[in-house]
Write a structure and sequence with these properties.
alpha+beta, protein yfey like fold, 6-stranded antiparallel β-sheet, 4-stranded mixed β-sheet, globular, ABC transporter substrate-binding protein
Length: 197
């Protein structure tokens, strides 16, 4: 009996020396990459982006061109059609989102044209006016935005998300009308327009 008690005590001491913390030790968190191991993290996809007033996917309106490029999600000085040059453009894998800048490349607006990115309340392109109003009871009344279309704006402090309802007008928008474009801004309210260079 004494030998089994002594053995049990020894086992408890050994196990106690092995535990004690859920935090990884330095040897568990530091590893040397092998020649075959990938050491880079895959960039997030546009569908993973969360749209918030003033930002999309952690990119905020108002950051500089240099800050945007440093995120790894943008290309700078992109040549477009008809002699256009874009100060910033989302990298190709971020299909369905766009960016507008001022002359020095500071981001002034971010947009979502296709499904994927959604707000933290789960609304996005394809959501209905009724869903927007349920998610954001303080959203503005439908107003003329875009190119004479109906839209609503959710505001938090100085930051905004605008929701455009395609071919509807203020007179024709209905609770079942669907969002066709979203725009986030800071300071100025979204105009919900995209055109030209």
């Amino acid at each position: 009996m004494r030998s089994s008690l002594a053995g049990a005590a020894a086992l408890i001491l050994v196990l106690a020396g092995c535990g004690g913390s859920d935090e990884p030790t330095a040897s568990e968190t530091t590893s040397t990459p092998s020649a075959t191991a990938a050491t880079t993290t895959a960039p997030p996809e546009a569908a993973e982006f969360v749209v918030r007033p003033g930002s999309i996917g952690g990119v905020s309106v108002g950051i500089t061109k240099e800050q945007a490029v440093a995120t790894g999600m943008f290309d700078a000085d992109v040549k477009g059609v008809a002699g256009c040059t874009f100060e910033l453009q989302w990298k190709k894998q971020y299909d369905g989102v766009d960016v507008l800048t001022d002359e020095d490349g500071t981001i002034t607006s971010l947009g979502v044209r296709e499904g994927g990115p959604k707000t933290s309340a789960g609304v996005g392109v394809g959501s209905t006016l009724a869903e927007i109003q349920a998610a954001y009871p303080e959203v503005s009344e439908p107003a003329e935005l875009g190119f004479g279309q109906a839209g609503v704006i959710h505001t938090l402090g100085d930051d905004h998300i605008g929701f455009l309802f395609g071919d509807t007008t203020v007179d024709s928008v209905r609770p079942v009308s669907k969002v066709t474009f979203m725009e986030v801004t800071s300071g100025n309210a979204p105009e919900l327009m995209r055109s030209g260079c």
